[in-house]
Amino acid sequence: MDTALIPPAGAYVLSIPAVVFSVLILVAGTGIFAYIIEKRIAPLFSAAPDPRLDHFKKRFIFMLKYAVGQYRQPRYLLAGIIHIVIFAGFMILSIHSASLVLTGISEDFAASVSNSIVGHIYGALKDVASTFVLLACVIAIIRRGIFKPKRYSVPPEYGKDHTKEAIFVLMLISTLMVCDMLFEASLTAAGIQKGLDTELLVPGTGTRLAAGILLTMSSVKLQTIHLVSYFIHDLTFFFFLCFLPMGKHFHVITSLPNTFFMKLDKGTVKPVVWGVEEEKLDDLDSFGVKKFSDFTWKHMLDFYTCADCGRCSDQCPANAVGRPLSPRFISIKCRDYIFKNYPLLGNAATNKKNLIGNIFTEDEIWSCTTCGACEAECPLMIEYIDKIVDLRRGMVDDGIVPQSLQKPLRALEKRGNPYGKMEKKRSDWTKEKGFSEKYKVKIIGKKETADALYFADSITSFDDRMQEIARSAVRVLHAAGVDFGILGPAEKDSGNEVRRFGEEMLFQELKDQNTDAILNSGVNKIVTTDPHAFNSLKNDYKDIPQVEHISQVIAREIKSGAIRLNGVEDSSAVYTYHDPCYLGRHNGIYDAPRDVIDAIPGITRVEMDKSSDRSFCCGGGGLMLFYEPIEEKRMGQLRVEMAKEAGATVIVTACPFCMANIEDAIKTSGLEGKMEVIDLVELIDRHIK
Amino acid sequence: MEILVCIKRVPDTSENEINVNRDGTDIERDDLVYSVNEWDNYAVEEAIQIRDRVCGSVTVVTVGDEETEEVVRREMAMGADKGVLLSDEVFKNSDGRGIAGIIKAEVKKGKYDLILTGAQADDGAGQVGGMLAAMLDWPYASLATLIEVTDDKKIKVGREIEGGNLEMLEIDLPCVLSIQTGINEPRYVGIRGIRKTASAEIPVHGAGDLGLSPESVGKSGSKIKQLDYFVPDAGEGAEILEGSVDEIAEKLVELLKARGGIK
Questions:
Q1: How far is the alpha carbon of A628 from chain B, nearest alpha carbon, in Å?
Q2: Residues of A whose CB is below 8 A from B192
Q3: B230 has a chain A CB within 8 A of its CB
Q4: What percent of chain B has pLDDT over 90?
Q5: How many angstroms separate the Cα of A224 from the Cα of each of A5, A22, A96, A216, A229?
């Protein structure tokens, strides 16, 4: 075919056929890339096991949704749109880039592709794509370089700023786009000059614009531009490919497998070692993650996949109050560790140090409330809670536990509750004057049976304030006509936090004792007012009757008409609902509590800015109440401020720990009398007909 | 360095409600849970840390009945190399001097460079450490908050004294030290650690093994006799606030305000 310019495959550079260079670049580029990938994957093969090949269809759909569909990107709107544009452009241009590489080797190849109808349509599409990508890159460079959004900054304790790498990569992408445009435009310009039938260029695209400018140039110059832009593109393309696994842009490749292998069972904690039964745990030499190679291969893949976008840390409540934890740097520090200890040249480091004390501090790992905000935000489905729990398991195994936590743990071991209260006093909340005369709460055992079990858990059983929640629950369940009882002294702490604080064997003991007591009670279902107990019973325990949080029961009974409500007591009050992490994010119960509140006639309810899956943890539950963190402010105080900003005067929650933290925060923020907190079941108790 | 740490199993004061029994001879023990005396935990931790620095071994020893074995295992789970239980019917109701005598007999069977005890016990009188040192005729320093091993002949010991000052002593080995809390941060002992020591052999030494005559120990060997055990009556000016935690706190605040304690 007659072409306006000599194509790269037919040209000569310094009397050497250019095709030689094309082949060299291709072979060297792919060879180096394959070598780097092999080096990067190597540590994954010596990592801990992590079976993730189940539910193939589900995984494939999730991969399409999160990686290809960029589902979570728009949660940060501007950054999300820029990313989607660059990503979509990349997807379109990847075909073109591959065909360009071959264009340098075979003269006929390019022509055969672009002369088909599909080729013409695609040609127009990729010109549009490259223009949008270039524009998006320019906006991104301005955003990163000039406006510098705060979430990208690197606190000094976590190393150097990452802006340079980000801008460097944006420049690489821009170079690819510009070269692509010049390569096409020079050919079109020369064609027009020679009066040939040229490719129609879409108005407004960079290629069309460039063609217009190039039209005035001599054909010799156009030939030079054509070849130079081709080879710069070719070199940049392979350089970029090999540069991807060097930093955060590895996600371009790893995001597909990472979303495919994502965690499917929310609310659970990974077993100590996959494939080791609970009964065999005693035989393990070591527990948890102590050295880097103790991580599972998927967790290592997470480190490679982190795109350094900072959304996790932006949502992390621990980070917000100045605790020494930033989930983003859990990933970044581990990735840096891999790069350093598994170098591309030379052998992997043999000196395997403990992670705690070297790249992590003890307080960093204890600071996490396991609220799950980071995981709910990560566009690439990176996990944090399982890693934190594994690191804690390692610390517990080595005896590294803060004194503030040792005491409640010992009490849990001896008494089954973190306060060290006597077992026989666990049901004392039922004996309160004025209550016990009206409501007889059955203690299920040899004499008494019931259809449902009300599982109060430790704080609700022993804390004076939280006992009110238990008594409200009794009245509400009574009104709904539920036949229920409690386990009394046989109930132990559910152990939700015991497990999540890394004391797996103590958790197993608590779980076994509770499981026995529950099965012996013969109940058909379990109800609880404590989302932590709810989560543990539902997700950690096996083969026990179905568990419901009381908000689900109330929502259902309001619908059925069994519970009827009076008009709102105080019509001037403005209510807002605070999502407890273990009800919302970990178990997806967002609507039932809201429906329950809205069922009170005349009630005014507003939403806080951070709600549902973006709810802000109030400070954590269970053992977290005993931990003495390093922090500038309390999470609860920030949460109360958010409620105030939303115009609320009453915070409704559905968790005794939220109650404890928020009540405390109202006092320490000086909002007593202006702000109130009430549990959902108490609110219903007050309004029941 | 061969280190011996004396430990004691005591009712866990933070996890129990302590009440005096009806005959006024003891506390109600039915619903009690027990643990290692808090000070002893620090002593064992310190011994483990010294061993890890300078080599040697750590042995824990206690006087008690078969149930007491539990605390020996716990401290072995913490990292002590060996454990010995000194147990005999005739040891029962020994006073502090009696206990010190029993431990002295065990010490004579071994070859120890350093003996650590807790500064006191939750339910004790803080006398065993000093008496043991006197019986052995070894140097003794109490309330140690810092230990530095100079060489196999000498150690330096820091003691916290009035006003937050630290006194540094140099002591020849072998010696006895009583350990104050705060000298370190005792490590956590999990269920897993305790289970791992379940099969460890813990020798039990009785009066015969130790060459002690039954009359020298137990009630017959005691020089101190307990007369009574009771909750003292509220004296003049003393007031016990009653009610729920909130009510008590409120009353306390009112009282403090009324008496000018707070404004």
A1: 15
A2: 281-282, 287, 397, 504-505
A3: no
A4: 70
A5: 10, 16, 21, 14, 8
Which candidate, B79, B85, B82, B35, places its Cα nearest to that of B62? B85
Residue B21's domain comprises 2-221
Of A399, A413, A464, Cβ closest to residue B245: A464
Chain A residues closer than 8 Å to B193 by CB:
397, 399
Q: Does B17 touch chain A (CB under 8 A)?
A: yes
Question: Which residues in chain A are contacts of B190 at CB distance < 8 A?
Answer: 396-397, 399, 409, 503, 505-506
Q: Which residues of B touch A408 (CB under 8 A)?
A: none
Domain boundaries, chain A: 8-47+77-246, 278-397, 417-560, 574-687
Question: What is the rounded (10 degree) CA torsion for A317, A322, A326, A327?
Answer: -20
Q: How far apart are CA B249 and CA B241, in angstroms?
A: 9
Predicted TM-score (pTM) of this structure: 0.94
Tell whether B178 is within 8 A of chain A (Cβ): no
In a domain, B226, yes or no: no
pLDDT recorded at residue A595: 97
- Containing H/E element for A63? helix A56-63
| Low-confidence winner among A609-613, A681-685, B194-198, B238-242 (lowest mean pLDDT) | B238-242
| DSSP labels, A546-589 | EEEEHHHHHHHHHHHTSS-BPPPS-TT-EEEEPPPTTTTTTT--
Domain A417-560 = CATH 3.40.50 = yes
Q: Which residues of B touch A509 (CB under 8 A)?
A: 191
- pLDDT mean by block of 10 residues, chain A; 689 residues: 74 84 93 97 95 96 97 96 95 87 78 74 91 96 93 90 92 95 92 83 91 91 93 95 95 96 96 94 93 96 96 97 97 95 88 90 97 97 98 96 95 94 94 94 90 97 96 97 96 98 97 97 97 98 97 96 95 97 97 97 97 96 95 96 97 98 96 96 96
How far is A411 from chain B, CA to nearest CA, in Å?
A: 6
Show the CA angle centred on residue A416, arms to residues A411 and A422, nearest 5°: 80
Residue B183 has pLDDT above 80, yes or no: yes
Q: Cβ contacts of residue B211 below 8 Å, gap of 6+?
A: B105
Instruction: Let me know: does A127 contact A114? Beta carbons within 8 Å.
Output: no
Looking at CATH, the fold of the domain delimited by A574-687 is given as Rossmann fold (3.40.50)
Nearest CB among B17, B188, B196 relative to A406 is that of B188
Residue A1's pLDDT is: 42
Nearest-by-CA chain B residue for A423: B31
Chain A: closest CA distance from residue B199 (Å): 13
Pick the residue from chain B with its C-alpha nearest to A502.
B190
pLDDT tens, residue by residue, B129-175? 999 999 999 999 999 999 999 998 999 999 988 888 899 999 999 99
The H-or-E segment that residue A487 falls in is: none
Average pLDDT for B40-61: 97
Contact of B14 with chain A, judged by CB distance below 8 Å, is answered with: yes
Q: What is the pLDDT of residue B242?
A: 85
Interface touch B15/A424, C-beta < 8 Å? no
Same domain, B159 and B34: yes
Q: How far apart (Å, rounded) are the C-alpha atoms in residues A455 and A427?
A: 11
Instruction: Give the span between the Cα atoms of A680 and A665, in whole angstroms.
Output: 18
**Token pair 């999300």: residue:** A80
Model pLDDT, residue B123: 82
Same domain membership, residue B244 and residue B189: no
Interface of A with B (CB under 8 A): 281-282, 287, 396-401, 403, 405-407, 409-411, 413-415, 420, 422, 424, 464-465, 503-506, 509
Q: How far is A429 from chain B (nearest CA, A)?
A: 12
Residues in chain B: 263
ipTM value for the complex: 0.88
